[in-house]
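Key result, reporting period 2: structure in, sequence out.
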């Protein structure tokens, strides 16, 4: 069933959680984000393929190498983020998107707006982070 969204649609607390319009809204949001990351990644790949480092000055060469290294780390983070976006899209298809993996409760719309790949409610995420800090300090 195709759902048409108006350009100004935003999910609200007043509507049923993860109704077809809301699911379509988040699907579009995730797909746009994924496309942006892929475009940036392709641009980086194109820049890296343009050739070797031809800077004569050793300091310039080091600077270019540092920039490339930083760009590659950024692209690696983007690759991991694309994987998380794909997982979120899979959850949308499965009907589990927007629900906390720990409690099964709905994740707030505000949290999903800010972090559409969220898998935990804010409360569960805070508990998880507290546990990590506690175990890290051991």
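The corresponding designed sequence is given below.
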């Amino acid at each position: 069933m195709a759902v048409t969204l108006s350009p100004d649609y935003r999910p609200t607390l007043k509507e049923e959680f993860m109704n077809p319009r809301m699911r379509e809204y988040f699907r579009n949001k995730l797909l746009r984000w994924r496309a942006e990351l892929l475009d940036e990644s392709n641009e980086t790949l194109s820049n890296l393929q343009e050739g070797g480092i031809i800077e004569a000055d050793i300091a310039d060469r080091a600077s270019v190498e540092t920039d490339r290294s930083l760009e590659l780390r950024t692209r690696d983070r983007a690759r991991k983020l694309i994987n998380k976006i794909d997982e979120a899209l899979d959850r949308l298809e499965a009907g589990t998107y927007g629900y906390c993996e720990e409690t099964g409760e709905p994740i707030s719309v505000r949290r999903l707006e800010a972090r559409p790949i969220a898998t935990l409610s804010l409360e569960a995420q805070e508990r998880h982070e507290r546990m990590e800090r506690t175990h890290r300090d051991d």
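The helical segments are 20-49, 58-94, 109-114, 122-136. The two ends are 52 Å apart (CA to CA). This case is discussed further under Risks and Mitigation.
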